[in-house]
Amino acid sequence: MEYSLLRAHHPYALSASPVRRKLALFGIMLVLWLYVLYSCVGSCATVPSLRADRRRPEDAGLRSGIGSRLVPQARAWEDYDQTGVGVFSRDLNNVKSDDVTDVRTFPRNVLKGNEAETETERRGGDAGGERRSPVHSGGLSTFSNGSGTKRLPQAIIVGVKKGGTRALLEFLRVHPDVRAAGAEPHFFDRFYDNGLEWYRDLMPKTLDGQITMEKTPSYFVTREAPARIYSMSRSTKLIVVVRDPVTRAISDYTQTLSKRPDIPSFESLMFKNRTTGLIDTSWSAIQIGIYAKHLDNWLQFFPMRQILFVSGERLISDPAGELGRVQDFLGLKRIITDKHFYFNQTKGFPCLKKAEGSSKPHCLGKTKGRTHPNINPAVVQRLRDFYRPFNMKFYQMTGHNFGWD
Ligand SMILES: Nc1ncnc2c1ncn2[C@@H]1O[C@H](COP(=O)(O)OS(=O)(=O)O)[C@@H](OP(=O)(O)O)[C@H]1O
Fold first, then answer.
1. Which residues, listed in sequence order, are joined to residue 209 by a DSSP beta bridge?
2. Which atom belonging to ligand 1 lies closest to the Cα atom of 98?
3. CATH number of 149-247+289-372
4. Strand pairing partners for 313?
5. Active-site residue numbers?
6. For labelling, which of 65, 143, 270, 352 has a CA lying 20 to 30 Å from the CA of 44?
């Protein structure tokens, strides 16, 4: 016992002791641990800049520093309806589009048989379920594994609901330099708090030179969307498929009717007061079609040259022509031409001779191109009269007459 104590206190004896070895090991581990901690802080510091501000997403990057100087503040839209109403939307449809708008909220078996025309669905991939943030899957901001890299979209189809947005995206993805998220991400209207890394993770992988795209038609009428997209990238290209607002409203109503057959008639929803003919602009089916008002919101952030308006009508009558314009706008080689389309008599719409990644002809599903209910012509005329001044304003703003009047 005495001997061992003596050994322990002798410096040379100590150097050879297991205690000393353990101390040395502990020291090395401490240094390593501090190093790892230091590196992590360095990496993590880059994450907030890639993610949206979760506290006040609508303010992210816009109210301070350079952001506040660069970003113009949104102006209020001048009175645009007969009543001054229109700020709040009586949203029978919940402004949802027909596509699988939020696959994350549906179990996969519910999607089966539905028109789950998403890339991931067709390929049997997993578009649903709780998405893990790439930060937690160890990726931080790098996503380059396998073939390509997940990137934030450089171009977004922001609207309009029932305009023909699915047709445009399906046609565009035939282009070898376009890759698109299948389902509607709804990031800039519903899931903004999830952050940009979450959004990026929804995107397909792209190779250098390929364009990443998505479509969510409700962005066009979401007040915060322009500022949020601007804060992601001020060079984002925006595409809006517009359609005669009267037909669009009826199409919107038809969609709701197909899901809830017990809703009141179009006429009774459209009028605030049937006798005076006052139109209820708080009904989302009506409000979405006041394009000039929504566009004004986008123009507070993006110049007109960064927004392309696609005619929903021409997308049906001359898909190759419209696709030519879109390819030019996106800086793509004109690869999609009239050779890619045929008119399907049964469907009554143009279809693809070969869908992307397939050798088979492809038409859009049965929720696209529904038969609309008959609406009293006098009611339709009243709606036409209502939209006319807004259409004129829209033609003036875009420098293009869409021929709806
Ligand atoms: N090629 C082709 N095939 C089928 N349908 C076509 C096509 N091109 C445009 N359309 C029109 O697209 C309308 C649906 O628009 P969206 O895809 O934007 O709807 S949604 O907002 O995503 O629900 C849909 O509206 P409805 O006819 O009222 O159903 C179609 O008229």
1. none
2. 23
3. 3.40.50.300
4. none
5. 162
6. 65
Concatenated DSSP letters for 360-388? S-B---TTSSPPPPP--HHHHHHHHHHHH
Q: What are 103-122's pLDDT values in tens digits?
A: 333 222 222 222 333 333 33
Mutate to test the pocket of ligand 1, among 368, 370, 372, 375 (most ligand atoms within 8 A of CB): 368
Of 63-67, 95-99, 251-255, 306-310, the one with minimum mean pLDDT is 63-67
**Ligand 1: does its nearest atom lie under 6 Å from the Cβ of 350?**
yes
Question: What is the CA angle 203-175-213, rounded to 5?
Answer: 25
Q: Is the CB of 315 under 6 A from ligand 1?
A: yes
Q: What type of residue sits at position 169?
A: L
**Non-local CB neighbours of 301 within 8 Å, separated by 6+ positions:** 71, 72, 226, 227, 229, 230, 234
Ligand 1 pocket residue status of 349, Cβ below 6 Å: yes
Domain boundaries, the chain: 149-247+289-372
What is residue 149's predicted lDDT score, i.e. its pLDDT? 98
CA of 356 to the centre of ligand 1 (A): 19
Grouping H, G, I as helix, E, B as strand and the rest as coil, residue 109 is helix
